[in-house]
Amino acid sequence: MEQQIEQIKAWLGTGSINIFGLPMSGKDTVGVQLAEKLGAKFLSSGIIIRAMEQATSQTYTHDGNLIPSNIFYEWVLPYFEREELWKYPLILSSIGRWSGEEEEVMSVARSSGHTVRAVVELQISEQDAVDRWEAAKLLGDRGLRADDADPQIFQKRISEYHEKTLPVIQHYQELGLLVPVPASAPREQVMTDVIEALAKFASRTGNFVPKL
Predict the structure, then answer these.
(1) What is the dihedral of CA 160, 164, 170, 175, to 10 degrees?
(2) Tell me, what's the pLDDT at 165?
(3) Are 154 and 93 in contact (CB under 8 A)?
(4) Which residues neighbour 169 within 8 Å (Cβ) at sequence distance 6 or greater?
(5) For 14, which of 35, 91, 122, 199 is 20 to 30 Å away at the CA?
(6) What percent of the chain has pLDDT over 70?
(7) Of 57, 203, 183, which is closest to residue 120 (Cα–Cα)?
């Protein structure tokens, strides 16, 4: 695996990898581990948005809806320009979930020196997402978020993913950036599979960057 990691590092440079998947697919878990292995910085739209909602006493996402695009642009995209990130690659967790936002994300990422080089899709079934949510609720390991306590809100998040985020993933696929990875296996295996898939993608695509 170390050889594959070094290969990915050389291919990625200061670029970025965006990770998508259904709720409970492991985006943040994989993202944090991948960032550690690649010497990258990790950015999660969910973490940023929840922090901003708390700071501004606003509740855009508490009912399971995605944040409006104009607020997403205002709150999340400026992170790409932060000076402390200039020299590092970025691992992104679902940055730009609403169809249409991906173009702005790619533009801002490229202008800041973090060109989107690949988009990983962690693939689990809807039933897997529900089963993981129910297990996490019993364990109490997801904090006190309303969307992790109310089954109707959780289902709304799944609906939002199908309606608004799947077209984003399809667009990345059309651009030749998509790296699908089955993610129903244990975490260690999923991480191994992500590294292997990215190494193969790096070998196949080289310096390819899609035109905006």
Answers:
(1) -130
(2) 95
(3) no
(4) 20, 119, 121, 178
(5) 122
(6) 92
(7) 183
Is the per-residue pLDDT at 119 higher than 90?
A: yes
- Compute the distance between CA of residue 91 and CA of residue 19 in angstroms, rounded to an integer: 8
In which element (H, E) is residue 181 found? strand 178-182
CB 114 within 8 A of CB 85: yes
Residues 77-80: contacts with CB within 8 Å, 24+ apart? 77/104, 77/105, 77/108, 79/43, 79/48, 80/108, 80/109, 80/112, 80/114
Rounded to 10 degrees, what is the CA torsion of 163, 168, 169, 175?
150
Residue 73 tokens, joined: 């642009």
State the average pLDDT for the chain. Answer: 90
Residue 135 has pLDDT above 80, yes or no: yes
**Across 69-91, average pLDDT:** 93
Provide the pairing of β-strand 16-21 with 178-182.
Answer: unpaired
Backbone angles phi, psi at 211, to 5 degrees: -75, 140
For the chain, the distance separating the N- and C-terminal CA atoms, rounded to the nearest angstrom, is 33
How far apart are alpha carbons 46 and 76 in whole angstroms? 10
pLDDT range class, residue 144, cuts 50, 70, 90: very low
Return the ∠ at Cα 156 (arms to 154 and 160), rounded to 5°.
120
Read off the DSSP letter of residue 14: T
User: What pTM, to 2 d.p., does this model score?
Assistant: 0.91
Q: The tokens 């289902």 sit on which residue?
A: 155
